[in-house]
Design a protein that fits this description.
heterodimer, A: mainly beta, four-stranded antiparallel sheet, 52% strand, B: mainly beta, six-stranded mixed sheet
Chain lengths: 113, 112
C-alpha cells in the first residue's frame, strides 16, 4: 500500500536529549514537510523539502534540524535547543504543482520529561 | 502574507443536524482551497478541495464552494453523524512550490 509512515507513534525523552523522528513515503512525491501541532494552535510548518539534498526553514525551525538524503525519507531531529518540544509532529508529502495537495502520516507524539 | 480564519469551536450538534463551519481566507493570488479532517490521535486526511472560483468540492456528504467574491470556503453537511466528530482544518495553497497555510482547526462534537 502506498502511503506515509511515521515512527514511533509515541516517544518519550529526557530533557536535554536530542531525538530523531522518522518519516518515510512510497508515493514517489518530490516534496516533504514537517509540522508541529499544539492544542489550539493548528499546524505550524517546521521544515520542508522540495527535492533531495535541499530543504528550507518553515515558520518555527529554531531547535530543529532535518536531512533529505533520499527521496523517500525526511527525518526530523528535535534538538536540546528546542525550548518546548512536547507536541504532536506530523509529516506530509506532496507533488509540487498547481494544486499542491499534501498527504499526511499518522503522526508522532513526543513527550519530553 | 496568506492566512486562513476558521470559526472557533467546539461546535456541538445532535445527530442528523445541519453543519456549517465557516472559513475565510486572505491570499495574494488565486489559491487552491482544502478541507482536511483529523480524527483523535491520527494524522490529517484530505476531505475535499476546490481549485478555482465557483468550484464545489464534495466528499462523504460534505460540501464546500469556493467563493472568490467573499473569499470564503465554508464546509457544510446536511445531516451529521456521531462518526463525523473530529477536528476540521481549512487550508490554502498558492500552488507551485508554495506550502499549505492552515487555519487553527474547528472541533466538531456530534452526540447521539
Amino acid at each position: 500500500d502506498g502511503g506515509i509512515t511515521q515512527s514511533p507513534k509515541y516517544l518519550f525523552r529526557k530533557e536535554g536529549q536530542n531525538v530523531t523522528l522518522s518519516c518515510e513515503q512510497n508515493l514517489n512525491h518530490d516534496a516533504m514537510y514537517w509540522y508541529r501541532q499544539d492544542p489550539g494552535q493548528g499546524l505550524r510548518l517546521i521544515y520542508y523539502s522540495q527535492i533531495v539534498n535541499d530543504f528550507q526553514k518553515g515558520d518555527i525551525a529554531e531547535g530543529y534540524s532535518v536531512s533529505r538524503e533520499k527521496k523517500e525519507s525526511f527525518p526530523l531531529t528535535v534538538t536540546s535547543a528546542q525550548k518546548n518540544p512536547t507536541a504532536f509532529y506530523l509529516c506530509a508529502s506532496g507533488i509540487a504543482g498547481p494544486y499542491n495537495e499534501q498527504f499526511f502520516g499518522p503522526g508522532t507524539r513526543l513527550t519530553v520529561l | 502574507g496568506d492566512s486562513v480564519t476558521q470559526m472557533e469551536g467546539p461546535v456541538t450538534l445532535s445527530e442528523e443536524a445541519f453543519l456549517t463551519i465557516n472559513c475565510t481566507y486572505t491570499a495574494t493570488g488565486y489559491p487552491s482551497l482544502f478541507w482536511y479532517v483529523q480524527y483523535p490521535g491520527e494524522g490529517l486526511q484530505l476531505l475535499l478541495k476546490a481549485t478555482k472560483a465557483d468550484d464545489k468540492g464534495s466528499n462523504k456528504g460534505f460540501e464546500a464552494t469556493y467563493r472568490k467574491e467573499t473569499t470564503s470556503f465554508h464546509l457544510e453537511k446536511g445531516s451529521v453523524q456521531v462518526s463525523d466528530s473530529a477536528v476540521y482544518f481549512c487550508a490554502l495553497s498558492e500552488g507551485g512550490y508554495s506550502t499549505l497555510t492552515f487555519g487553527k482547526g474547528t472541533m466538531l462534537l456530534v452526540s447521539p
